[in-house]
Amino acid sequence: MSAADTLLDAVCSITPVARDADGPVFREPWEAEAFAIAVALNEAGLFTWREWAEALSRAIRRAEAAGDPDLGDSYYHHWLAALEQLVAEKGVAAPEALAERCAAWDRAARATPHGQPILLENDPLAPA
Q: How many domains are there within the chain?
């Protein structure tokens, strides 16, 4: 069984994941990237699948407590929140560094012409 399959099994024990015969189905490219990052970080030994499932479950519960109506459109936002929490807990990146990178991507996205790939280098505040 591949790491991605193991991850899917762990996640599906918490909440259903949209998938077809080929595996998970993503609505946006960033969702697939977040999925791949979780697999890569597990393979690198940063966390176990049990830790991942617990982090994702906590992220979902926090969102629900904050009023997330759980319509299925925010699932990978919870996924991303769990990733950010784990890398902060494990000391890989400080929450402040994650927040700055998120802001840099947002600025880069706003500065990128429609239809072009969003590159972090497009951030107007990026060092030259």
A: 2
